[in-house]
Amino acid sequence: MQVLVIWMFAVTLGMAPTMAEAAVEAACGVDRYEPNDARGRAKSTRGKPVEARVCGGDVDWYYVKLEAGTTVEVVVEAGDEAAVDVGFYPPRSRKPQGKATRADGRVVVRYRVTEAAKHRIRVSAKDGAAVPYLMTIRPAD
Length: 141
Ligand SMILES: [Ca+2]
Prior knowledge:
Blueprint: H1 2-12, H2 19-28, E1 43-44, E2 50-54, E3 59-66, E4 71-77, E5 84-89, E6 99-103, E7 106-112, E8 117-125, E9 131-139
Parallel strand pairs: 1-3
Antiparallel strand pairs: 2-9, 3-8, 4-7, 4-9, 5-8, 6-7
The structure holds calcium ion.
């Protein structure tokens, strides 16, 4: 009882995760890129494939530095192309850009880079279930 009261007090002060937040983390599991739930907390892909997971209530933000004049593909393999959404955000863009295709368990977003800068990627789940995925960013051929 005493622990519950202390926890409720901590939640009230915004110090402890609420039940809903704790449930989301438990359902998704924690991957090495968390916390990355907001655009301002986007994590670098470090030029490597990203293995992570999303679920309802958890979104993942990443950034990657790209050179102007190249066309890139962001490939998110999730086993089911209908399970995830992928948004590609050039600098200052509030709306996702690029051409997305869904097939073979993958979502691919293709974009021609016009500015050498950080570009951001948002991965989210279509519904509540946890979705593990592998994301790679590669030059389009
Ligand atoms: Ca996240």
